[in-house]
C-alpha cells in the first residue's frame, strides 16, 4: 500500500470534545534518546519523517527525554513539516548531569520555564498538547493546569493533556480547563484503566493516548541487553516474573504466527479493536519497526481472536518498580 493509499484509507480520531483530529496511531519518541540503549539520530529522524509521510500526525516527546536531546531531535525531523503534525509534550521530570532522576516540578513558574525551553528546542511557536508527565504531590493540580491555561491564552499552547493520573485528579483538572486526553499505559499486559479511568474519561468527553502497548517490548520478545536499558530494573523483565512472562510471550508468538502477523502487530491490533476511540502511541526507533506497527491498521482481529488473546496473556509483575508504583497517581484506588 502506497503512502497516499495509507492516508486515504485511514480514519482519524478526535482527541476529546475539544482536541484535534489525529491519525489512529501516534509516534512515541522516547526510545530515540537512549532510554532503551543505543540509538542512531539519523535513523531516528528518518523514522519520524517516514511516519509523517505515511500519515501519522501525533508525535509525542518529553523535555526530560535525553535531557532535551529528544526535543531537539524531533525539531530537526519536523522542520519543513510542522503544519502536518501535532506535538504532544510532557514536562516536569528533573534530571541530573549524570542522567539521574532528581524529582518532579509542576509549580506554575516551572511550567512556564519548561515551556519556554521546549518551544526553543522544538523550533516551534506553539505546542499542540502540553501535559505534566506526572502529578506533583507538592502542587495542587489546579495550579499546574491554571499555568498551562495561561499559556493557552497567550498562544504558546493549543490544548492541555494529562499523564498517569487517577480519577479524582482528572476531574479536578478538567474543571479548571478542558482536558483533551490522558496519556496512560495500556496493553494486553496492563489493563488497569478499564475499571474506572476509561469510564471517567468517557463521561467527561476526554480521550486517551495509550503508551506501552507492547509493554516496553515485553510482548514482542524484546529483552534488556544493552547498557543503559532501564528495563533491566523492571519487575516484568527480571527474576521469577520475567521467567513466567517468557513462557507467555512464547505462546503469544505462536498465536501471531498462526495468523501470519508479527507479535507487535497482534498486540497493537488488540488495542485498536479494544479501544477504537482512543489512540495508541507506538514507541519505535527504526523505520522497520514503524512499518511493522502501521501494518496492524489493516489487520483487524475477530472477536474470537480477541477472546483467545485475553485468556492467553496473563503477565506477572508490576509495570514499574515498587517505589515508582507508590508514586503513581493513576494507581491510587
UniProtKB/TrEMBL annotation:
Record organism: Pyxidicoccus parkwayensis
Protein name (database record): Aldo/keto reductase
Organism superkingdom: Bacteria
Keyword Oxidoreductase: yes
Keywords from the UniProt entry: Oxidoreductase
Keyword Nucleotide-binding: no
Pfam families named in the record: Aldo_ket_red
SUPFAM superfamilies according to UniProt: NAD(P)-linked oxidoreductase
Residues annotated as domain NADP-dependent oxidoreductase: 24-313
InterPro entries: Aldo-Keto_reductase (IPR050791), NAD(P)_OxRdtase_dom_sf (IPR036812), NADP_OxRdtase_dom (IPR023210)
Amino acid at each position: 500500500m502506497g503512502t497516499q493509499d495509507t492516508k486515504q484509507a485511514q480514519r482519524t480520531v478526535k482527541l476529546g470534545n475539544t482536541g484535534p483530529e489525529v491519525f489512529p496511531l501516534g509516534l512515541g519518541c522516547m526510545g530515540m534518546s537512549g532510554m532503551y540503549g543505543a540509538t542512531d539520530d539519523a535513523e531516528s529522524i528518518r523514522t519520524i519523517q517516514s511516519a509523517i509521510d505515511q500519515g501519522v500526525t501525533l508525535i509525542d516527546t518529553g523535555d526530560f527525554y535525553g535531557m532535551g536531546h529528544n526535543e531537539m531531535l524531533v525539531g530537526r525531523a519536523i522542520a519543513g513539516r510542522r503544519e502536518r503534525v501535532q506535538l504532544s509534550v510532557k514536562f516536569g521530570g528533573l534530571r541530573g548531569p549524570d542522567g539521574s532522576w532528581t524529582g518532579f516540578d509542576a509549580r506554575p513558574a516551572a511550567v512556564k520555564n519548561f515551556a519556554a525551553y521546549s518551544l526553543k528546542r522544538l523550533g516551534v511557536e506553539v505546542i499542540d498538547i502540553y501535559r505534566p508527565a506526572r502529578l506533583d504531590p507538592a502542587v495542587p493540580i489546579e495550579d499546574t493546569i491554571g499555568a498551562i491555561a495561561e499559556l493557552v491564552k497567550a498562544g504558546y499552547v493549543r490544548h492541555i493533556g494529562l499523564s498517569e493520573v487517577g480519577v479524582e485528579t482528572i476531574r479536578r483538572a478538567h474543571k479548571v480547563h478542558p482536558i483533551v486526553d490522558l496519556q496512560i499505559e495500556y496493553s494486553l499486559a496492563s489493563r488497569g484503566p478499564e475499571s474506572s479511568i476509561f469510564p471517567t474519561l468517557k463521561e467527561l468527553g476526554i480521550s486517551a493516548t495509550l503508551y506501552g502497548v507492547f509493554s516496553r517490548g515485553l510482548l514482542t520478545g524484546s529483552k534488556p541487553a544493552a547498557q543503559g536499558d532501564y528495563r533491566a530494573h523492571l519487575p516484568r523483565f527480571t527474576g521469577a516474573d520475567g521467567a513466567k512472562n517468557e513462557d507467555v510471550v512464547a505462546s503469544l508468538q505462536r498465536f501471531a504466527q498462526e495468523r501470519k502477523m508479527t507479535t507487535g502487530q497482534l498486540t497493537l491490533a488488540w488495542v485498536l479493536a479494544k479501544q477504537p476511540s482512543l489512540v495508541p502511541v507506538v514507541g519505535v526507533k527504526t523505520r522497520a519497526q514503524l512499518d511493522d506497527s502501521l501494518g496492524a491498521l489493516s489487520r483487524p482481529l475477530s472477536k474470537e481472536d480477541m477472546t483467545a488473546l485475553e485468556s492467553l496473556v496473563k503477565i506477572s509483575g508490576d509495570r514499574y518498580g515498587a517505589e515508582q508504583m507508590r508514586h503513581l497517581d493513576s494507581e491510587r484506588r
